Amino acid sequence: MNDLSLSQRAWEEEYRHVTWGGSRSISAVEDLLAPGSFVLDAGCGNGRYLLPLSKKYHVVGSDISLVALSRARNYLEKSGQHAVYAAASITHLPFSNDSFDAVVCYGVLQHLFASERSLAVEELIRVLRPNGLLFFEVFGTNDMRFGGDEVENNTFRRKGGIIYHYFTEKELELLFRGFDIGEIRSIMTEKIFRGERYTRHHIKGIARSLKSDI
């Protein structure tokens, strides 16, 4: 069985137990992207970003998990919202070149091996229109969950088979060398678990495709 099918099985099982948890803020997208733009939510999961995105944009949600897509569709329909859905890996997106004005990629690249991350970024560049925007978020190396069964540098396999990679800002700059990174920042938040204090480390950013329209 190949890594893709193993990954797909792991995420199908994960989303059988994940609860909704409510919509997430898309303020970073709203600040830069005009209403009515075409947006891909790459790795949309159960729709926590897809739902608010669908209220302002023509949006497509893609995910490797059929369970996640089914739940996302149900959540949007209950809210009277609509999106297009695609079952696909971010490393092989089923869209034409230059399809989207923006891609939202929150909490996805951290679940890929190094070779897959490179393929994913190539795909994001391909489906974005010239000067298209990429909104991304990943785990950073100072996160409380860093460590475990290491399978690549700073990459760990968790119980159930899901991969977790922890990034540095420099690593992201190299990964996104086909983009003009307008913003990249580490966000540290405190989490108290069983009376102990821990740190969650996320790195968020916004980048613009350097692809020419000529």
TrEMBL record:
Residues 39-132 form the Methyltransferase domain. GO terms for biological process: methylation. Keywords: Methyltransferase, S-adenosyl-L-methionine, Transferase. It comes from the Archaea. SUPFAM superfamilies: S-adenosyl-L-methionine-dependent methyltransferases (SSF53335). Pfam families: Methyltransf_25. One of its GO terms (molecular function) is S-adenosylmethionine-dependent methyltransferase activity. This is Class I SAM-dependent methyltransferase. The lineage of its organism: Archaea, Methanobacteriati, Methanobacteriota, Stenosarchaea group, Methanomicrobia.
